[in-house]
Amino acid sequence: MNDEEIERIGKTMAGALRHFPEKFSLKMDEHGWVSIYSFIDAVRARSQRFRWLRPHHIEAIVATDPKGRYQIKDNEIRATYGHSIDIDLDLPTENIPEKLYYPTTSEEISIILETGLKPVDRKMVHLSKTIDDAKTAGSHRVENPVIIEIDAKKAIENGLVIMQAGKTVYLAKEVPAEYLRRVEDK
User: Fold this and answer.
1) What CATH number is associated with residue 148?
2) What CA–CA distance (Å, rounded) separates 122 from 142?
3) How many CA atoms lie within 13 Å of 58's alpha carbon, on the beta-carbon side?
4) Is residue 89 part of a domain?
């Protein structure tokens, strides 16, 4: 596969597995899993250009994805985060870092610190493993994101569920303001 093919298939995976499986006639279970064969058939049906696509191509994309956005098991595939559809992600909740991070804008920081983190265009709040990961995530929205630190250890002790969704991404339904603080610029 060349870089353009990898990018096009990756975008198709994101759309079909995170946002609109029905456009691909995919039958997704409550945890977001779909048959890898059904996914491949759907991609082939939408574009003759990908008639060569096989499971090992999808497995290679998943295995080399630097963010760990997808999982494959038992001939099924799913996205682990970024959903705008309702699914019940049964992701790991152990070994969560004591601190996690969230990027925002200077205009939104005071509101978030007062009201907490709530999902906006996705079903879950996406948290980052490191400050640098949060800056990278936030740079897609604003040139210099403001970083919020989450006291994940205390939040979990008080009953908040945080799940590991990728190599550097963690999810929560929301994070109350009491666990948030602004990371001061250095």
Assistant:
1) 3.20.170.30
2) 18
3) 29
4) no
